[in-house]
């Protein structure tokens, strides 16, 4: 099958983050088995979605892993010009949800698989496809935990997030949490008899905003924009009616940390401020939504040099968006970002990828295979 044909099949699976993915896992697994690959399905604890691990070549030797996620963000925006889950061809562009982020990369890896099988690799190529990356990299930790039983530790992992096929060496880490305040409802004419959860949360949010602004003083890393860690409140919900004292309020916050700073540690002062509300009679709760570490690959590393040779492009020092790469590095596997497409097209209506980008990505994968067969 051509890259385009595979991409069309992948786009047709509406694998929105947080939903079952059995159909796409089954299709990819069958395709890979038909190419002569070893396939392992790794069900996640949710019970209705799985990671997928595929190997071409000898598992007992060290090779390279191409890593990507099968989930996509929702596509409910009215600005779509066509069905987001049907690949649309227009000139050199191919439109659909996930074309850039990141089923285009998956299609390239799958299209290259039969050729990799035919050249009898001396070192293996692995495909590590995860679920729920868009919810904060929830699937890949389970895959990484199983990895020692699946293969020898890879020499490196290439995470195919959209980077215009330019190797990227670093990204920020992220931690997100949901805060909940539970007060006591009542008639708004007697605020003295209730506990206003929104107003209590407002104090926590005000503190979080002020604290987040203080992070701009450092630690600093000039490779990033902005060059400092950050914190923001992204969602708030609570209340029923203006004349009812709100008894419940939730807020979602996130921290993004430069390498060397733990993203979860940035949230600790906010957590302490939330729990201090118990002294005023409120109940509170803290739920971690997601967390992954920063990536920091040394520019002179063997993996960085390999990707520079395979792509013909100098590495980009850093990007501010996050990926699964930091989790691979945390697991002791060097990781780099390199994939087709451009991040500015992702998570938007009429997402697209260009035919030339797909061709360049497939060529990169095939070139690595030639090296591993030499």
Q: Label the CATH architecture of the largest domain.
A: 3-Layer(aba) Sandwich
Overall structural class, as computed from helix and strand content, comes to: alpha+beta
Whole-angstrom Rg? 23 Å
Q: Average pLDDT value? A: 96
Total strand count, please? 15
CATH superfamily of the largest domain: Zn peptidases
Q: Order of strands side by side in the largest beta sheet?
A: 1-2-6-3-7-14
Task: Return the CATH topology of the largest domain.
Answer: Aminopeptidase
**Biggest sheet, in brief?**
6 strands, mixed
Oligomer: single chain
CATH class of the largest domain: Alpha Beta
Query: How much beta, percentage-wise?
Result: 15-25%
Give the SSE string. HHEEEEEHEHEEEHEEHEEHHEEH
User: How many domains, in number, for the residues?
Assistant: 2
Q: Tell me, what's the shape?
A: elongated
Q: Would you identify the regions where 5 or more consecutive residues have pLDDT less than 50?
A: none
What helical percentage do the residues reach?
25-40%
Q: Distance between the terminal alpha carbons, to the nearest Å? A: 26 Å
Give the helix tally. 9
């Amino acid at each position: 099958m051509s890259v385009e044909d595979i991409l069309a099949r992948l786009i047709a699976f509406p694998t929105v983050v947080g939903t079952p993915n059995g159909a796409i896992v089954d299709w990819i697994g069958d395709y890979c088995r038909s190419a002569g690959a070893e396939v392992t399905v790794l069900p996640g604890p949710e019970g209705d979605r799985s990671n997928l691990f595929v190997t071409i070549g000898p598992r007992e030797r060290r090779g390279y892993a191409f890593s990507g996620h099968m989930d996509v963000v929702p596509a409910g925006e009215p600005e779509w010009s066509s069905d987001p889950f049907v690949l649309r061809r227009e000139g050199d562009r191919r439109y659909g949800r996930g074309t850039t982020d990141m089923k285009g990369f998956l299609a390239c890896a799958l299209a290259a698989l039969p050729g990799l099988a035919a050249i009898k690799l001396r070192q293996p190529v692995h495909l590590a496809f995860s679920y729920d990356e868009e919810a904060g990299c929830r699937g890949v930790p389970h895959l990484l935990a199983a990895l020692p039983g699946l293969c020898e530790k890879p020499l490196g992992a290439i995470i195919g997030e959209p980077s215009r096929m330019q190797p990227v060496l670093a990204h920020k880490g992220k931690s997100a949490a949901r805060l909940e305040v539970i007060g006591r409802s009542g008639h708004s004419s007697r605020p003295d008899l209730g506990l206003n959860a929104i107003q209590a949360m407002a104090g926590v949010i005000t503190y979080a905003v002020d604290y987040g602004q203080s992070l701009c003083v450092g630690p600093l890393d000039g490779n990033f924009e902005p060059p400092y860690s950050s914190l923001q409140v992204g969602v708030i919900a609570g209340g029923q009616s203006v004349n009812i004292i709100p008894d419940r309020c939730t807020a979602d916050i996130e921290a993004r940390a430069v390498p060397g700073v733990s993203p979860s540690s940035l949230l600790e002062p906010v957590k302490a401020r939330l729990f201090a509300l118990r002294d005023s009679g409120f109940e509170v709760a803290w739920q971690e939504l997601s967390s992954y570490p920063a990536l920091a690959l040394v520019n002179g590393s063997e993996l960085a040099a390999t990707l520079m040779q395979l792509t013909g492009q100098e590495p980009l020092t850093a990007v501010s968006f996050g990926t699964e790469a930091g989790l691979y590095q945390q697991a002791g596997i060097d990781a780099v970002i390199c994939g087709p497409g451009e991040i500015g097209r992702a998570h938007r209506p009429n997402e697209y990828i260009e035919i030339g980008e797909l061709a360049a990505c497939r060529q990169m994968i095939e070139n690595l295979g030639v090296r591993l067969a030499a």
